[in-house]
Every structure is written in structure tokens, then in C-alpha cells.
Amino acid sequence: MKNSGIEWIGEIPDDWNLIRFKDICVNRKEIAGTQSSNFDRLALTLNGVIRRDKDDSDGLQPKEFDCYQIIHENDFIFKMIDLQNISTSRVGLSPYMGLVSPAYIRFSPRKEGQYNLFVYYFLMSLYYNCVYNNLGGNGVRSALNATDMGQFLIPFPSIDTQIHIVSMIENRCVAVDKLIENQQAQIEKLKEYKQSVITEAVTKGLDPSVPMKPSGVEWIGEVPINFSIQNIRSLFQIRKEVIGREPETVLSITQSGLKIKNVSENEGQMANSYANYQIVHIGDFAMNHMDLLTGGIGISKYEGVTSPDYRVFKIKKVSYIKKYFLYVFETYYRNKIFYAFGQGAANLGRWRLPAQNFYSIFIPVPSVKDQQQIADHLDKKCAEIDKLISVKQQKIEKLNEYKKSLIYEYVTGKKEVG
Question: What CA–CA distance (Å, rounded) separates 418 from 410?
């Protein structure tokens, strides 16, 4: 082995060379112009380069694609902007010809039929180890350009060795991916089980011996005879109180509830001013009624403000157990009850729950004693399920780390291929 002189490569085999990326690939940019309609749209994802519908409104959506650039099969694609974001895709080797954003960097192989998979796995290894992010600078718009990419040194064995290494990587990674898929499938089953436990408890109660009665509401079905069915208007009051000044605490709504937003680190969507945000008191409910599929709801633990586009409401009877109703509302999100009452243009990402529709929705209401028992039962049961999910998520993290280290050791020659 010999020292490569490159921090993120380390030692490489004596018979390997180091070559600059620009010596095997050339930077090109070919704008589609009026020919854009002749090409498929492509997207760079964490799972590689995929075809994407031109009408897909997810993410940034241009009015037209004439400004997009043409990518050829076997081209490298790099997204080297906003490098402070460590969770987005960065590197792709395109199996297709098509269009990508003009902000991406394209490198084409210098030789016809050039074998690029080994180099691709090396470049992915740099992504896994955050090399691009660390080199991009600390600015808000940290980035690398085509010149920077061309200067990257690549460990380069013989073509036969490259092919052998890629075969080993792909065989081993397939096995690891199957283990990850198995763990992920178990997590999904646990999440489904958790939701069924919550739904059963808030609609059927905890005592199976109690006589049941029709609720008169399709998605609720039968309920215990001592449950009442009431609409949200009779139980809650929407409140919107604009703060009128810059607040100390800004709250964001997530699928895990309300969290304090770190405005100093520019995380998520930012506002120039928060003076028009609405006040949230401790104990208030707040929900994202603009995203009825993946939006969240929570009970605030803090005094603060949240977006004026969200819905803040409070329970009318102080004796009622808020956590019980939170479980009901979470069930209505997951079972798409709120979604069914929404209005707007779902295909454009504008599907909201108007206040009058929200107020008209019926929910099961047990006695205060039963509310407390159900909430306590679900707190305990959900904690048990969440612990099982966490264990499996940790297994997935370890498998992903193993996969990343495996690729690094192969593409830098530290693991022999025989």
C-alpha cells in the first residue's frame, strides 16, 4: 500500500494510480431550448437518477423546460448547491437520456463506452462521508462548481479490477439492502399496528364487555353505549390572535407535534418577520390544515407563535382530557378523515380543511374518566411500540453505515477482492 496524499482516500494499493476526474470525463452543458418536448424529465434522488413526470408538482416546478439541460446515458450528474444540507442527493450516473435542472453539473465520459461504475461508487463514497459538504464552505449558499469537481483525484485500478470490485460491491450491497428492506417492512407493520391500537381504543373503548350502539357516523362505526358523538364545534373553539411584534419563540408543526423552531440557523421555511404570526398558548391545539396527508397536529408545551396559515384552537371544557382528543385527531389524520373533508386542488398541493368543515366533523366522546384511562393506556402502549420501532431503526442505521464503509474500503483498495 502507498499513501495517496488525500485525506479522504488514505492508502491505496501500490499498483493503483490517482487521476483527476476531468481526465476521464468532460464538463458539458447543452440547453434543450425548443427541443425540450422531445425528452423525458429526469430527477436526481437518493436512489439514483429516475424518470419524473413533467407534471409532477413535487418540489420546484418550472413553467417550461426549455432552460433545462440535456443529459445523455452514462453521464454523471452532480447537485453541488446548498451543501450545508447533508440529507439531499448529490451524485448520479444516468441510465437515461433526458432533461435535468440547469443548476446541476454534468460530466460526460471522454471515451465511447467508458466504464463508469467504479468511479461512480467512489464519488458516492465521498457523498456518504460528507466530503462535498465539508469542501463547500460555510455560507448559506455553499457550493462546488464544475472546475472543483474536475480536480477531484480518483483512485484508479485496472479496468479488470474495477469490474471485479463493482461486482463485489453490488453483490454485497444487494444482501445488505434486503436486510434493510426487511427491517423497514417490520417498522411499517409496527406503525400499522400502532394506528390500529389507537383507532380501536378511541372508538371502541377499553372494555370489550360494554354493550355497543351505532354511532351514526360511517368512519366511527359502533361505539360503547356510554360514548356520545359530538361535532368539533361543540367541543373546541378556533382562536386566531396575531402577536403584532417579533416573538421570542416560534413554533413549527411536525408529525411529532409542536417544536421550537431554530430561526437563527435558517432551518425550514423562514419569514422576514414573525410579527403577523398567531399566538399559541400552553395547552392549545395547533394543526397544519393545509397538508392533510403528511401534516401534523399537537398540543403546545410552550408559549409562542406559529404560522398564520395554521389552525390554533382550544378545548372548551377544562375537565376534558386533551391527550385523548389528540389521539382522536391523529387517527383522523392517518385514516384520512380530515382529508375527506378538505377542499382545493390536491394535484397542485393545495388541499385544505376549511374552518366550517373542520367544525362539522364528528368525534367519539367518552366520559372524562374513560378519556383519562384511554389516554393512559395509549401512552403506555404507544411507548412500547415506539421502542420496538426505534430498535429496528437503529439496526437500519448500522446496516447503512456498514454499507457505506464497505463501499469506501472497496473503492480505495483497502479490502481485497481476490
Answer: 12
